[in-house]
Design goal:
The complex is a heterodimer of chains A (169) and B (104). Chain A has 169 residues and is mostly helical. Chain A is built from 6 helices and no strands. The longest helix of chain A has 28 residues. In chain A, 21% of the residues are buried. Chain B is built from 3 helices and no strands. Classes of the chains: A mainly alpha (169), B mainly alpha (104).
Amino acid sequence: MREGLFIAFSLFTIAAASGVVLSKNPVYSAFSLILSFFGLSGLYLLWGSTFMAMIQILIYTGAIVVLFVFVVMLLNLQVIRENSPNLLFVGVVSATVWFFSLIILRVLTRAIPTNVTEIPTNQLRTISKLLFTRYLWPFEVLSLFLLVMIVAIFAITRAQEISHGGEKV
Amino acid sequence: MNFPLSMTYWSHFVVVAMFALGLLGFLLRKNTIVVLMSIELMLNAVNLLLIETSMRTHTSEGIILVVFVVTVAAAEVAVGLAIVLNLYRMKGSVNLDHFKSLQG
């Protein structure tokens, strides 16, 4: 039962992910991205990581893909004509990725982590405790990083208006 | 909780397939927005690998790392789309082939 569900979610995720890359219209790509994220969320749930399943839907589909859809709608795009890809190139790239990642995964499945924190049933409490004790400084740096990003986005979107002699907003 | 080994194998299959798809989309597509989506696909493949390793070995470091990755991914998409908006205002297109000069 559990494995069957897992296989179904895996195939669904990969199908949706190929829809992102293959569809001509960026709106279809965005909606395929949503489907793929829901499939991933199901995979996380089957692994027992309820926290990540929630985060996947809340942040990825709720914020990131909505941002994508918003920009696609805002830009009023026409479909870009693309020449069909070089099949040799596609084959070489995918073969390289499969080869190296299989080696890396082989190593990863054998590696035994040392000096790590055991995860109990209450995942959220463990994560938040770790974030505010051992990973406090990375966490704080992350908040500073987000602030810098907000300022950068403002600077990027306003730079055009300023250089054009500053229309009033 | 013990997980069957086939779940690990299927997870690795999804990870590799999603990463390969994202890389191919990143390299081959001309639409800048779809290229950003492909980057998201690659990031999600890595997230799945981290969660899988973390849950299988009953550790929480992978989940912490994923929290950081998700935050940085959200910020990256916001900045990337702001840049795309600006480029569209300048050039009237989001085709990557139209962005040839570094200045203006």
